[in-house]
Amino acid sequence: MCPVPTCRLGCIFWNIVFTACVRSTMLHGSETWAPNASDLQRLRRNERAVIRWICGAKLEDEISSAMLHQKLDLDEITAVLRTRRLRWYGHVQHATSCINSITRLGLPGTRDRGRPRKTWSACVRNDMTICNLDGVNPLDRNSWRTSVRRCQVLPTLESGTTAAP
Q1: Long-range interactions of 107-115: CB distance < 8 A, separation 24+
Q2: Using an 8 Å Cβ cutoff, are 73 and 55 in contact?
Q3: CB neighbours of 85 closer than 8 A, spacing ≥ 6?
Q4: pLDDT tens sequence across 91-115
Q5: What angle do CA 113, 115, 120 make, to 5 degrees?
Q6: Are 90 and 149 in contact (CB under 8 A)?
Q7: What is the Cα–Cα distance from 51 to 68, expressed in whole angstroms?
Q8: Mean pLDDT over residues 16-20, rounded?
Q9: Three-class SS state of 72
Q10: Which DSSP string do the residues of 97-108 spell out, in sequence order?
C-alpha cells in the first residue's frame, strides 16, 4: 500500500522526507545544468507525480498541485534549481584553482549555424536578473549568501516563468 500522510506522520515529516530523499536525488548535480524548457517541464511533472503519491491525491480528486505544494510547504522546483545554481556560481567565483580560469576560457574556431545551445553562464545571468542580483558582488560572501537566500522565496508561476519581484 502507498504511504499517505496520517495524523501520526503529518505534512512536516513528508516535507522533510521529500526534500531529503526525492528532491535531492532529482536535483543531484543540478548546479551545473543548463536545462531547457522540456527538462524543466519533465522535472516539474515528476515532482508533481511524487507529491500526489505522497499525499494520496488522485487526478480524479481535482486537487491542484499548488495546493499540495502549499500543504507540504514546498518551494517550486525551478526556484530550488535557481537557488542551487546561484550558490554554485558564488563558489565558482571564489575558487582560486583552475575552475575560475576555465569558465572564462574562450574557444577557438567558429560555431555552427543556428541558435547556440543554452549555456550555464547564460542560465546564471538569467537567474541573477530574475533575482535582482545584478548589483551584488559574488566575491562578498555574506551579501551574496543573503541575497541568494532572499531570492529563494520568490514565487514561481506554473509555466516556469518567474513572477515580477
Answers
A1: none
A2: no
A3: 30, 31, 33, 120, 123, 124, 127
A4: 888 887 777 777 777 878 888 889 8
A5: 125
A6: no
A7: 7
A8: 85
A9: helix
A10: SHHHHHHTPPPP
Query: CB atoms < 10 A from the CB of 40, how many?
Result: 16
Does residue 5 contact residue 54 with C-beta atoms inside 8 Å? yes
Give SS3 for 81. Answer: helix
pTM for the model: 0.77
* Average pLDDT along the chain: 81
Please give the C-alpha separations between residue 7 and each of 12, 41, 68, 75, 130, in angstroms, as whole numbers: 11, 33, 17, 23, 39
- The kind and range of the H/E element at 53 are helix 37-55
Q: CB–CB of 156/163 below 8 Å?
A: yes
Name every residue whose Cβ is closer than 8 Å to that of residue 154 and which is 6 or more positions away in sequence: 79, 130, 131, 162, 163, 165
Burial of 39 (0-12, 13-18, 19+ CB in 10 A): middle
**Contact (Cβ atoms closer than 8 angstroms) between residue 37 and residue 81:** no
Q: For residue 6, what is its C-alpha cell?
A: 496520517
- With a CB cutoff of 8 Å and minimum separation 6, the contacts of 26 are 43, 46, 47, 77
Cell of residue 48, nine digits? 508533481
